[in-house]
Amino acid sequence: MTDSASALPAGLQWLLRLVRTKELALFFSILVVIGTTAALDSSHAYVRFPGRVLKDNCRRLAPLGILALGATVVIIAGGIDLSLGSVAALSGTLCASLILALGGERFDTDAGVGAGVLSVAIGASLLLGLIIGTLHTWMITSLELPPFIVTLGSLVGLRSFARALCYYMTGRFRDSSSEDLPFSDPLLEPLNNDVWISMLLMVVLAAVTWLVLSRTVLGRHLYALGGNEQAARLSGVRTENIKWFAYSFSAICASLAGVIYIAENGAKPSTQAGGYELTAIAAAVVGGCSLQGGIGTIPGTILGAIFLRAIVDAVARIIKTASDIYEGMIVGIVVVLAVTFAQLRQFQRSGRQLFPGLLGLAAIPCLALACSLVMLITIGTGTGAVAGVATLALLVIWKAAEMRRTSRVV
Amino acid sequence: MDAPIISIQHVTKRFPGVVALEDVTLDVRAGELHAICGENGAGKSTLMKILSGVLTEYDGELLLAGKPVRFKGTRDAESAGVSIIHQELNLVEQLSAAANIFLGREIRGWFVFRDDRAMEQAAARLLKELECEIDPRQTAGSLRVGDQQLIEIAKALSLQSDILIMDEPTSALTEAEVSRLYRVIERLRKRGVTILYISHKMDEVFHLADRITVLRDGRLVKTLDAKATSPRETTHLMVGREIEAVDFGGERQAGEVLLKIQNLSLPWPGHARGWRLKDVSFELRRGEVLGIAGLMGAGRTELLECLFGAAVEPPQGRIELLGKPVLFRHPREACAAGIALVTEDRKRLGLFPAMNVGENISICTLQRTGVAGFISRGRERREASETVKRLNVKTAGLASAITSLSGGNQQKCILGRWLQTEPRVLLLDDPTRGVDVGAKAELYRLIDALVRPASAVGNVLRGVPTGGDVPARVSAVGNALRGVPAGGIGVIMTSSELPELLTVCDRILVLSEGRLTAAFHRSEATEHKIMEAAMLGSRKAS
Hints:
The structure holds 2 protein chains of 2 kinds. Chain A is mostly helical.
């Protein structure tokens, strides 16, 4: 550390370290997105009912944030967990099924199944997370399978297993088999109605995870494992145990999110949390995690999750009709752009080109075409044509500038 | 005389934290065999990487046959007629010999299909010319290192290269393979190929070279005519004065037996040899430095890994630490028992590139300093900065990136990491690889200080040369002893450089193909004797 930095008061230093430039940039991006939405939204929801907007967004943010925490820990440890959404669906279904099986007559009544049954059901779903995490780690460390394959198997398999479980349990304990298990319970209701409970859960979990990552030996070992697994093992780190923690933690996070999801309207294993594993990973990556492992922070991930939530909300408020169709498209573009911007400075420093050689040349019309198609279907034919031509012209100029720069070097 | 075929003009190459080459200017004449000599880290490989288009960013100019060129990649260099044979061969092990020779320039047959037959025939012709009796359809991975190297040479021939760079080509060869390589080189020279030959083995260089260029610490020291110089002079130029100035004072006092290894074997399933190590027995005493010599693949690294509980398979045999039999199943257990290993491949097995200097130093001792799983950051920082001071690490601070340090300083950080664990036995696997000469001498002094009991410090200090920053060196050596058991520790060290082992070690064991073939006391060991013992197994095999 340089002398000038240590001369600052400790509190300010702490604040500076907490909000390093990357996180600060993300924070301002969030403000920009919110500001833009407030300005462009024709019904001015952000200005007229800020409370309701905040509540709506927090309801979606809390479980996503919890999933992203799990994804972050695994990514920092140098792995990947693609199964989070399916684990959430399965755990939610298990929780609902147990409430159905143990609650008997009192299932889906105003009286509710009672705190005892509920805690058993929730405890069992968290335990299920631990079991899944343990199996993942065993397959990764003992069978030496790549984490991508192992969790891809879970992603596909556990979703189907959740549906089968729902089908079996409803057939066994209700009149007919069903793919859904809708119910409400007075004790679970607050988790849905009062979003602050789930937000509090997320914030507390984030704080604990942040403490573990930044202040404990376990946390340092997670970063070491992700940064260089071989070196970590040769430094005496029990890498299998650290992996066990990472994958179990992420699966338990997913289970917790699953419980929050069923509080809303019961279990719907065919759709619940579908594709959310990728959103969670996207939040972590936008927040500064490196998929190579060893790099990432919890404040970054939480900001990343908020950023993605703000984007999705912006799309919904600005486009209004059938906005969910465009949601994935815009989130996809934004994630790629965010990570590209994070690397731009590196490109500038090393003098590397964005469009090198033949591949770069081929990418230019492809990008222009993509841009024009996106504009065409969202706004209109005219805009699409103009956007396509404009993009093409801009990128050609960029490429020409890059070529001139390199030819001057040679 | 003609214009030089290669002319390197004022080339400078900087890596973060180090200047690998500084203002090097060198002419190579057409058709000559020009040897480039220098210690590890002298800049030989960097220079060759620039010549062959591997490194594309540098200051200065490169002229081929009088024309300035700037390669954008290895393909540019190849089409200009420059081929390189790297020390670590660049073959796709799953592909056949023929496919490797024509990789990227496959012979096309009908329509878009490859003509494998034509490539195999052409490969067979090239290989025959090189006295290489292998089937071109054999996969590259199944061949011996010497044959693999000939595949690379065949590739260069098929490219019609008139400039061939060979980076330490004999480091993994048996004697028979070396003499075959010499004959191949002779034949290439008759064809008019210019060869740049990188080596630090004097007998080879003087056997082959017309002219010799010596590099040291990234600078060109001198270009000599091979006939007008001697191995002695060249070595002197290569090493400089620094290492010769190292004087370790009197004989070290060996104490009680720390480690006793009996019939240690490490199986190698699926390999023709069947074992990586076979019936290795030796002892390590407190207060001595034990050297392990051997060619590449002789089992040096595997031996240290067995002692550290990091072997790929569980080893057989008996390991006793201070009289008690031990079996480490994980490096963690070895750490706890007081054994430390500084690995050979720093980048792959030692460094955490995303972590800073302080975090890299403290990684092994976090548990000890913390409470209830939490890291005591004050204590972590204090101990790390003490280590930085004690080992004289040149860094801007504990928060700087480890990758911004030079190789020698990175190595000191890793050594410091392990010294913080207060080991009884320190295993060093080629500790000076990629370390510059100055830092090397410092490491030697440090190793010497570690094995001596505290009372002998005075002798060590008297041996410190007067050149350079004496007070800093003295305090570095004195401080190094803090936290080390009073009787000194035992060190086992491997090295690919024999002079290094001869300077630092009290005894030298020689491994050949996994067997212990000789053991020498420092007084009786010579480079020649060690090399003979190191080749023993391989000669039998070939």
